[in-house]
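Here is one chain, start to finish.
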Amino acid sequence: MFKLSKLAALAVAAGAALTAQAGEVEVLHYWTSGGEAKSAAELKKMMQAKGHTWRDFAVAGGGGDSAMTVLKSRVVSGNPPSAAQVKGPAIQEWAAEGVLANMDSVAKAEKWDESLPKVVADVMKYKGSYVAAPVNVHRVNWLWASSDALKKAGVAAMPKTWDEFFAAADKLKAAGLIPVAHGGQNWQDFTTFESVVLGVGGAKFYQDALVKLDDKALGSDTMKKSLETFRRVKSYTDPGSPGRDWNLATALLIQGKAGFQLMGDWAKGEFVAAGKVPGKDFMCAAAPGTASSFTFNVDSFILFKLKDASAQKAQSDLAAAIMSPEFQEVFNLNKGSIPVRLGMKMDKFDDCARLSSKDFVESAKTGGLVPSIAHGMAVAPAAEGAIKDVVSQFWNDDKISVADAMKKIAQAAKTR
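Its structure:
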């Protein structure tokens, strides 16, 4: 009788321990489109396999202000979700409020320091401790091309320099095609601008000018040349460009009506969705002059301080799952980006992703891996927004001189 009661007591204790370990994770994310929603479902499955409950806090529209307002009110009232999709310097701003959890024990167990390039790991840390988990890497400094358009215009290869780019653009123009497909939104202008600055000045100049916001760099001849080159790119866009969404610009390449587009690797998703094959129907290459550099845009989750022990355990498991090779592979195959983990097998990925991964690893060793200012990875949001506005004004108004634009960018850089 005693034996049975002891066994029963042990069984009850084991059940209680399992229940204590199983918790709820509430995750604020923007994965609402087809491929992304599939990835969120995969993460949910991984958490459920560990016995946890997944609560979706999905917000459509790529992380608008309304989502951040809801998040702030939840945090202030002492009821934060387990995790929220936030990136770049905004991670540090949340951490400075003292509301984020220290994830060093998970990071140490899962060897994050060895699995991430230092420049990416540093973005995920506050005062030396991990407070966020990275999901993927988008390369921003891509040049895309329509194979049909290049063939029609007699352009034999993807341009490696800005001189080659403008020579190819002239051929496309002469063939009656749009040389550069572009949309009229300030983040698109800025995406092009940062690739031009990187291509003209190199990674060190890019860091000085667009990450450190150094006065000397912003007022230099190299910045002058960057703005002149940027304006020249504008001259190859079509009159229908203002107000156009980025995916409609990509569609012009898919239809063979335009030759080139300067855009991050999310553009690849549009080509693939249209049944186009990389290397055959469309071409990908680093933006002119940037082959040895890589501007990164990393999606990540900040992790909030939680009171409940089972919720803390579920949160730790979530952070480990996000960085796991299994999730990194399935998510990035769906998203068009590449795994943020170093040393991942890339055999299931296409040629563009393999090139991206190779350049990501190599640029991390050489100092060519730099954060994208256009996509919220490099500077505080206030300065980024102010510089973005100046760059778009310059792009849209030929009357603004290069000298005036340089002065305005330097002023905008001081916005706090």
